[in-house]
Amino acid sequence: MKKNLATILILIFVSGLFQLTGCTPDKTVKTAETQTEDRSWMFHDIVDADFVKAHMDNPMPANVMLIDSRPHKTKFIKGHIPGAVSIPFSEFDKKTNLLPEDKNALLIYYCEGETCKLSHNSARKAEALGYKNVKVYAKGYPEWATLYGGSADTVPVKSGEVEGAIDLERFAAIIADDPGSILLIDVRDPDEFKKGSFKTAINIPVESLDKKINDLPEDKPVVFVCSTGARSGEAFYMAKDLKKSLKEVYYVEAGITFKADGQYEIKKPVKP
Amino acid sequence: MFKKITILFTAALFILVSNAILFASEGPKGNDRKGKYTYRKVYKSCSESGQVESATPKISPSDKTMAEWKSIFDTKNFDEFGCKDHWVSLSDEDFLDIYSYFYGHASDSPSPATCK
Q1: A223/A201 Cα distance (integer angstroms)
Q2: Left if phi > 0, otherwise alpha if psi is -120 to 50, otherwise beta: which for B109?
Q3: What percent of chain B has pLDDT over 70?
Q4: Do A46-148 and A168-267 share a fold?
Q5: A168-267 has which fold?
Q6: ipTM above 0.90, yes or no
């Protein structure tokens, strides 16, 4: 009798413990159901890896931008989809100048997989800016790396022969393989820039650079370009003088000719 | 004996003149890229002090030949530029850089200044 009573008391105690800790099958099922139903945070236009692959190229086609919304240092640098531009969601407002001018351009955002909200939030902000063709690759980098491999190592910047100049071969490699790893600033006049430039370059004419220099981000190397190295060299020394916190600044000491089809030619200039 | 001395003297003179020509043709050895920025900075400072109308420099290296710029910079005759007090207070390094910019992009240089 005493034994039965003890057994009953133990059973009551144990079941009471389960109730307190919430280890009941019913509760677990309820939580999972709630999670799968709540997709309100997702962007309205989701695409898959095939779509991304069909629209990208090397170099990226005109009017297509693949954007990585993850943190730059802790995620993008360690691996990203080749050709992607790094615009972390946390820096979206500061980096709107990196987005294409054409509001009909195709923007494809991605981040760290199906539970990552950064790309969806970025896409909504892009639409709010007036971009009409915005997509989110929801499965993001984890799936891409599995299917095709990512660009695990960024192409590090390397100095050239003269002070401030970037190594030309390394520059060409960065433009081809990892353009998002640098902030490329074309310091020519707007009418020159319109006729042709690097796809990921932003235009800040050298005459107005001093007013904008404090807005330049410090999280990636800055590389100035023009058509001969004269204005970009000037921009380099301006940056070193007026924004000393910029640790990595370079310029392209070379003649650059841009062709109508988006191709370019880099030639070392003849020094006197 | 006299012949030997004459030959030696002529050879020495030839070497001296050749070196002079070579030195003259090489031009100043400053940093012309930095010189471009420093020149613009001088003009900006000039403009802020009201001594010139605009911060945009009016004189381009391609306005003169290498020989003309050499004459101006060797004699430090900056009347054409204005803002004499800014020019005379330049450091030796800044002076050489600006000189290199003008000389290296003069109208008869291999790379005359064509862009702003």
Answers
A1: 9
A2: beta
A3: 86
A4: yes
A5: Oxidized Rhodanese; domain 1 (3.40.250)
A6: no
Residue B66 host element (H or E): helix B66-75
Instruction: Name the token pair of B37.
Output: 């920025």
Mutation target for B interface from A234, A243, A271: give the one with most B CBs within 10 A: A234
Name the residue type at position B68. Answer: E
pLDDT band at A190 (very low <50, low <70, confident <90, very high): very high
Residue-level pLDDT at B34: 94
Query: Helices then strands (H, E): number in chain B?
Result: 5, 0
Which residues fall within 8 angstroms of residue A257, CB to CB, at 6 or more apart?
A: A227, A264, A265, A267
At residue A33, the pLDDT reads: 41
B102, B73 Cβ separation under 8 angstroms: yes
- Mutation for A interface: B33, B93, B111, most A CBs within 10 A: B33
Chain B positions in Cβ-Cβ contact with residue A224 (cut-off 8 Å): none
Q: Could you give the CA distance from residue A244 to residue B80 in angstroms, rounded to a whole number?
A: 33
- Three-class secondary structure of residue B115 per DSSP: coil
> What is the architecture, at CATH level 2, of domain A46-148?
3-Layer(aba) Sandwich (3.40)
- How is residue A236 written in tokens? 């380099």
Neighboring chain B residues of A270 at a CB cutoff of 8 Å? 110-111
A202 DSSP β-pair partners:
A185
Residue A230 tokens, joined: 């004269």
**CA B69, CA B64: separation in Å to the nearest integer?**
7
Which of A164, A227, A236 faces B115 most closely, judged by CB atoms?
A: A227
- Is residue A228 within 8 A of residue A253, CB to CB? The reply is no
Using alpha carbons, select from B41, B32, B106 the residue that is nearest to residue A163. B32
| Gap between the Cα atoms of A152 and B93, Å rounded | 44
Sorted by where each begins, the domain ranges of chain A are 46-148, 168-267
Contacts of A162 (CB under 8 A, 6+ apart): A253, B33
Other Cβ atoms within 10 Å of B44 Cβ, number: 16
As a whole number of angstroms, the distance between CA A234 and CA A207 comes to: 10
pLDDT in tens, A238-258: 999 999 988 889 999 999 998
- Torsion angle in degrees (nearest 10) through CA of A160, A166, A168, A170: 100
Distance CA A96, CA B5 (A): 78
